[in-house]
Design brief:
With 270 residues, the chain is mostly helical. It has a domain of 93 residues. 58% of the residues lie in helices and 3% in strands. It has twelve helices and four strands. The strands form two sheets. It has a two-stranded antiparallel sheet with strand order 1-2. It has a two-stranded antiparallel sheet with strand order 3-4. Helix 5 packs antiparallel against helix 6 and helix 8 crosses helix 11. Keywords: Calcium, Metal-binding, Repeat. One of its GO terms (cellular component) is endoplasmic reticulum.
């Protein structure tokens, strides 16, 4: 009975996540949270089914396929070890795909074929991919939201430039596209979360700061959504982030939560 409840809860969680298309994605694949503290509501889909966009019917089919693939002893049920193994397999698969993705994109963007990606080469592609408008006279991105996203991406680019030569080599480019595979970059991102959400500047993120720190503005008509979001954030903080249960999240707790290569995380997700 407990195993069946686990499966039903899993299906409910995956089917309740919003179905998004590529142009709507704002999260880095493979991370449960972004640097502004926004939760990735597709994270559990990514680590169990993969990160592809799916409609409801496709999601149900993917779940059916997953259940058959995970049931190693073919007893018609899933146990904790089988689900944990699935999570680890998907994380390894994601890492391999991210490496190939970086290589393919690098070959596409490296216009001067010097084996490195400059900011000019990358930003030209980024602006086009995001559908941003450029002021031809000044060369600046048009719109405050776009400007903010553009500057954020520029900061991420230079953070990934480990040797500070203004260009990204293959390993550095991999970190830019998929920081979840870099311990160093994850630590920087965990610091970003604290800096963004730590309103009283005590060096920690309290449960209250995390729950109420929903990024962006929420319209009055979306109050029901806001309350659900707060409940989701409270549950995430208590169950997954605050390891020592002191009501505060420090850098190491946030880093552990964000580090999807951490073996303990697979067991926690189960």
């Amino acid at each position: 009975m407990r195993t069946l409840l686990l499966i039903y809860n899993l299906i409910g969680t995956l089917l309740s996540a919003p179905i998004t298309k590529d142009e709507d994605k704002i999260h880095i694949e493979g991370l449960p949270i972004d640097k502004n503290g926004e939760l990735n509501d597709k994270f559990r889909q990514e680590i169990l089914l993969g990160g592809e966009d799916m409609d409801e019917g496709e999601t149900k089919n993917a779940i059916d396929k997953m259940l058959k693939e995970c049931d190693k002893n073919e007893d018609g049920q899933l146990n904790v070890d089988e689900i944990e193994m699935r999570i680890k397999e998907k994380k390894n698969e994601h890492m391999g795909e991210s490496i190939q993705e970086a290589r393919d994109l690098m070959a596409q963007l490296d216009m001067d074929k010097n084996g490195k990606i400059s900011w000019d080469e990358y930003s030209t592609w980024f602006v086009e991919k995001e559908g941003m408008d450029i002021n031809k006279a000044s060369g600046n991105v048009i719109g405050s939201d776009n400007t903010h996203r553009f500057e954020d991406e520029k900061t991420s680019f230079h953070r990934s430039d480990d040797n500070d030569d203004g260009q990204l080599e293959e390993d550095e480019f991999k970190v830019l596209l998929h920081p979840e595979n870099s311990k160093k970059m994850l630590r920087k991102m965990a610091n970003d979360v604290i800096e963004f959400m730590d309103k009283d500047k005590d060096g920690f993120v309290s449960e209250k700061e995390f729950v109420n720190g929903i990024p962006g503005e929420i319209e009055a008509s979306m109050k029901e959504f806001e309350e659900k979001e707060k409940l989701d954030r409270k549950r995430e903080f208590i169950e997954d982030i605050d390891r020592n249960k002191d009501g505060m999240a420090d850098l190491e707790e946030l880093l552990s939560y964000m580090d999807t290569t951490n073996g303990d995380n697979a067991r926690r997700e189960v």
